[in-house]
Design the sequence.
């Protein structure tokens, strides 16, 4: 059962009415359920028991320290893509020997920071990056583990902006391009080639593309071993989808058993997984207050105090987020666009969405907002960023206060 549910027609998070949180903290606010997040973490980890594996939470998805600490307490590692994410992961107590550094554009300074911290390994994406890393590690008299990111050319059947494992994407190297890079890296006294990595896309709702990628990478692992490389890690990235509307993504158990079937017979291989959205997407809602109703001809707009600067997914990807009334009245729904105050027609949370009649002062919840919500938010239109609240049992804590006007001018 979800920890985010109606009780006596009031939407609650772990039993706490969202009306209470709105009253005390204001809107817009991100509200996360600890039970939902840790439940997803436990389910994901449990799915891989019995195989050598490492779960690295993808920090870009939701980087609030409170959540990172919960991950750290459960022995989870981190998938990072910047020096800033390294800083946050370490600050939260994530063990450096469980951190993998992904991304196509790592800078020398970020490499130095990660080498200094002694992270588990770098997921290297190009020959030039590999050479720079060898040089930086050399200057520091270090030897570091690397994986090469392979672009397996598998169609993940998801939104084009979040497909990352096809030929036309900037990520990774094809098998053919990667082989000489593996050979060159093996010559460096500062690099230890230990793994193969991929991430084919995000919000995948089928198991097949994962399986296909795993099969291609398994073959590569075996070929590389035959060529003398001591490959011990296979990083399959993240990508497991969630239900936003009516999707039926595989469970972590199905996902894991599919991967185990392909990889279970390879001895001495540790699977690295970089889940993000699955762990936190449905653990959070974005709480907002209705400001006005307005009609333009047949079109009915509900204007709220949440905007594309707070949650950009609908504007950027045409992503669906359900919008629910915090107090359910049972009245017949109207078809409305839920929009925000920003001066762009792309500023909407939902289009042609069923919603009971609402009035100024009513509260709404934008659902499934835990992943890629706050982390992608901005100060556009000089809007202070939303508060973040974590609910644990009957209690809630502000885990990041709403920004102030002073925050808007700091450093300017
Ligand atoms: N590992 C790597 C190397 C990644 O690039 C990503 C996400 C993940 C792991 C985590 O993937 P997940 O398990 O969350 O699917 N902003 C977009 C999604 C961008 C995904 C970027 N990479 C959205 O809001 O849908």
Sequence:
């Amino acid at each position: 059962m979800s920890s985010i549910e109606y009780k006596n027609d009031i939407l609650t998070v772990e039993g706490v009415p969202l009306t209470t949180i709105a009253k005390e903290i204001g809107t817009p606010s991100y509200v996360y359920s600890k039970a939902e997040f840790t439940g997803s973490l436990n389910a994901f980890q449990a799915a891989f028991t019995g195989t050598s594996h490492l779960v690295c939470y993808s920090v870009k998805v939701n980087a609030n320290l409170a959540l990172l600490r919960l991950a750290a307490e459960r022995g989870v590692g981190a998938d990072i893509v910047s020096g800033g994410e390294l800083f946050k992961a370490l600050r939260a107590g994530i063990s450096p020997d469980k951190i993998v550094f992904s991304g196509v554009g790592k800078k020398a300074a970020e490499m130095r920071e990660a080498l200094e911290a002694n992270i588990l390994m770098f997921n290297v994406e190009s020959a030039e990056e590999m050479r720079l890393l060898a040089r930086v590690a050399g200057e520091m008299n270090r030897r570091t583990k690397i994986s090469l990111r392979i672009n397996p050319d598998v169609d993940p059947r998801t939104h084009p902006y979040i497909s990352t494992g096809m030929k036309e994407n900037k990520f990774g190297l094809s098998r053919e391009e990667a082989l000489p890079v593996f050979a060159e890296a093996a010559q460096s006294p500062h690099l230890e080639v230990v793994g193969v990595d991929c991430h084919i896309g995000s919000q995948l709702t089928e198991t097949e593309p994962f399986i296909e990628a795993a099969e291609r990478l398994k073959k590569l692992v075996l070929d590389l071993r035959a060529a003398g490389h001591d490959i011990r890690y296979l990083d399959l990235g993240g990508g497991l989808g969630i239900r936003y509307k009516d999707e039926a993504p595989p469970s972590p158990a199905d996902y894991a058993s599919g991967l185990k079937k392909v990889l279970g017979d390879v001895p001495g291989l540790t699977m690295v997984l970089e889940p993000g959205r699955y762990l936190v997407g449905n653990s959070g809602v974005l709480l907002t207050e209705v400001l006005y109703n307005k009609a333009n001809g047949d079109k009915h707009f509900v204007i709220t105090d949440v905007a594309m600067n707070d949650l950009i997914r609908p504007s950027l990807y045409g992503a669906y987020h359900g919008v629910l009334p915090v107090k359910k009245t049972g009245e017949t729904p109207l078809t409305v666009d839920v929009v925000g105050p920003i001066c762009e027609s792309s500023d909407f949370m939902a289009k042609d969405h069923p919603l009971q009649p609402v009035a100024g002062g009513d509260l709404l919840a934008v659902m499934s907002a835990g992943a890629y919500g706050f982390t992608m938010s901005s100060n556009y239109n000089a809007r202070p960023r939303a508060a973040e609240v974590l609910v644990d049992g009957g209690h809630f804590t502000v885990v990041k206060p709403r920004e102030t006007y002073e925050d808007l001018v700091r450093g300017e």
